[in-house]
Design brief:
By secondary structure, the chain is an alpha/beta fold. The chain has helices at about 5, 20-30, 50-55, 60-65, 75-85, 110-120, 140-155; strands at about 10, 15, 35-40, 45-50, 100, 125, 135-140. It has a single domain, classed as Roll (CBS-domain). Strand 6 and strand 7 form a beta hairpin. Helix 3 (about 50-55) packs across helix 5.
Length: about 160
């Protein structure tokens, strides 16, 4: 089976000129953790994820471990202040341009291997050679497909 047969076609996307906070609200309402960011021509330029947003909100000195006792750091007020700032940034300023992409004719096994090999992505964007977005495949999509195939086989017996 090839990627174009099991991808989620026409996934939700965001534009580079949208405010990150508005996109995040849309992601939350749709139950998404990631949204491909496209330019005016529909070409994928990166992905906006909840993790990339959080990475811009939490101060670097906290993430790096430079602060010995995080429990004494001002947390909620500081994070809220950073959230307010970052939510006004444009998507283009926050996106992760290092995203996992696969071609529409790649096999199920190839896509699964790419997801595992990337080590940091649960999703692969299915893109055309010109960068146009065709769909998206998650690790959960692959597991669901395999479970359905196993269930179908049991029902055939």
């Amino acid at each position: 089976m090839i990627a174009s047969k099991f991808m989620v076609a026409q996934p939700q996307t965001c534009r580079l000129d949208e405010q990150a906070g508005e996109v995040f609200k849309r992601m939350r309402s749709l139950g998404l953790r990631l949204m491909p960011a496209i330019d005016a021509g529909g070409t994928v330029k990166g992905v906006l994820s909840t993790l990339s947003l959080l990475g811009h909100i939490v101060p670097d000195y906290i993430v790096s471990g430079d602060l010995d006792a995080i429990s004494y750091a001002p947390d909620f007020g500081l994070l809220r202040k950073h959230y307010d700032i970052v939510s006004n940034w444009m998507v283009a300023d926050i996106i992760d341009t290092q995203y996992l992409s696969v071609g529409p004719n790649e096999s199920l096994l190839s896509v699964a291997a790419a997801l595992i090999g990337s080590g940091r992505h649960e999703y692969a964007l299915v893109v055309e050679t010109d960068g146009g977005l065709l769909g998206i495949i998650s690790a959960g999509d692959i597991l669901g497909l395999l479970a359905q195939m196993a269930n179908d086989r049991q029902n055939d017996v």
